[in-house]
């Protein structure tokens, strides 16, 4: 069980706890960032990720002004894309109130080749296109930079060019 305090919002602090799985681990970081580390790039890890989110949704108030997620795929690479997207769609349909939940997420990946980086950005743009007003997504390879992006409300989005230079070997 993970225990943490939410302390950076105008409301009184809330103590959170969530179960961890075998393939996806949850950590609460400062400034309300929820870190999910995918130890394996499997459907089971995706299922555990949604189970943890289910727990958080049912037991705690939604963070404001948005949910901040750091999705660490460095240990074994990205989760299966099609399965993740299908699971996300089903999960969001199960909770109609999520339509009004804003999310800022960073996918933390190892540096990759130009072809892989181009594919990663295509996926990112697709996610943002279908959830324009709800989800902001970045792909980075440095956790400190990812945390800054997640928590800096004054920042602008990184450009494709700067991201591409960060990730390409």
Can you describe what's shown?
By secondary structure, the protein is of the alpha/beta class. It has a single domain (2-167), classed as Phosphatidylinositol Transfer Protein Sec14p, CATH 3.40.525. It is 38% helix and 23% strand. It contains 5 helices and 7 strands, in the order E-E-E-E-H-E-H-E-H-E-H-H. The strands form 2 sheets. A 5-stranded mixed sheet has the order 3-4-5-6-7, with helices on both faces. Strands 1-2 form a two-stranded antiparallel sheet. Helix 1 packs parallel to helix 2 (81-94).
Global mean pLDDT = 78
The amount of beta strand, in percent, is 15-25%
Q: Looking at the structure, what is the overall shape?
A: globular
Given the structure, what is the number of helices? 5
Q: How do the SSEs run, as a string of H and E?
A: EEEEHEHEHEHH
Which range best describes the helical content: under 10%, 10-25%, 25-40%, 40-55%, 55-70% or over 70%? 25-40%
* Global Rg: 15 Å
Low-pLDDT runs of 5+ residues are 1-13, 156-169
CATH topology: Phosphatidylinositol Transfer Protein Sec14p
How many distinct beta strands? 7
Number of domains: 1
CATH architecture: 3-Layer(aba) Sandwich
Sequence of strands across the biggest β-sheet: 3-4-5-6-7
Largest sheet: 5 strands, mixed
Give the distance, in angstroms, between the N- and C-terminal Cα atoms.
37 Å
CATH class: Alpha Beta
Describe the secondary-structure layout.
Blueprint: E1 2-6, E2 14-18, E3 24-28, E4 33-38, H1 43-59, E5 67-72, H2 81-94, E6 103-108, H3 114-130, E7 135-140, H4 143-151, H5 160-167
């Amino acid at each position: 069980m993970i225990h943490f305090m939410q302390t950076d919002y105008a409301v009184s602090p809330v103590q959170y706890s969530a179960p961890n799985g075998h393939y996806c681990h949850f950590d609460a970081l400062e400034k309300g960032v929820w870190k999910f580390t995918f130890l394996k790039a499997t459907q089971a890890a995706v299922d555990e990720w949604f189970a943890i989110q289910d727990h958080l949704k049912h037991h705690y108030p939604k963070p404001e002004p948005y949910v901040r997620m750091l999705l660490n795929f460095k240990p074994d690479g990205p989760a299966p894309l099609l399965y993740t997207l299908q699971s996300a769609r089903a999960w969001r349909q199960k909770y109609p109130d999520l339509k009004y939940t804003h999310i800022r997420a960073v996918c933390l990946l190892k540096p990759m080749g130009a072809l892989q980086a181009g594919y990663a950005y295509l996926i990112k743009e697709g996610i943002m296109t279908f959830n324009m007003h709800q989800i902001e997504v970045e792909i980075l390879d440095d956790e400190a930079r990812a945390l800054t992006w997640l928590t800096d409300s004054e920042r602008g989005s990184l450009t494709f060019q700067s991201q591409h230079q960060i990730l390409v070997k």
